[in-house]
Amino acid sequence: MKKITGLFVAVLSTGILAFQIFNSLPKTREIGQGPVPDISFEKEIYWEKAREEIYVFIMNSGSRIKPDTADLIAAAIVENAQYSDLNPYVIAAVIFAESRFRHDAVGSSGDAGLMQIIPSTAKLISEAVSQTPYNIKDIETNVKFGCWYLSAMKTRYGGNYVQILGMYNQGGDWRGAGERYAQNVIRQAEEQGLPLGLLILYDEMNVQKNADDLLELNKKS
Predict the structure, then answer these.
(1) What pTM was computed for the model?
(2) Biggest CA pair distance of the chain
(3) Contact at 8 Å (CB) between 105 and 113?
(4) Contact 221, 4 (CB under 8 A)
(5) pLDDT at position 174, please?
(6) 111 pLDDT more than 90
(7) Average pLDDT, the chain
(8) Which is more confident, 46 or 27?
């Protein structure tokens, strides 16, 4: 768990401009001006698209993950993102930064699995979710535990993914090393073609806070 560039500046600038244009548009609509969108249907499409795009992201990551394993990882990400109300692309980016999608990866501090969870944290999470015994290298278990931790951070920070990423890495004050970790996760994902800065910027949980902290990170890079 312990661990923006010119491209990010361009992507973020485009996103901020689009965000400003979006905010300038009228947000209300008179009754009868068109059909009311089926939100549940749109959400279903969102999750299906997210799974497909994350699968492609895994296969294009250069990690030589087999298609069936990539599909299993993408499915675990989307399932746990839905359950924990998390942005699935953020989860995929964390896994890429932590383990390059290798479920058997082990770090120098005993961090293990896709999301590189340290043994003491895994034990605490297993008790919280009532899952004992457990295999932290198991794909579904590791993603479930990592998402539980991210969700706890999201509850604390109200959907601000810059802070959530910093806390995922540090477990304390997210400034400093935590901010650098957030930069690293965003940068690496974007280098692989996943526009994580924009995906965070437009996340419905907390658009303005995400925008402010992304700009602050960019100034420090």
Answers:
(1) 0.75
(2) 61
(3) yes
(4) yes
(5) 72
(6) yes
(7) 79
(8) 46
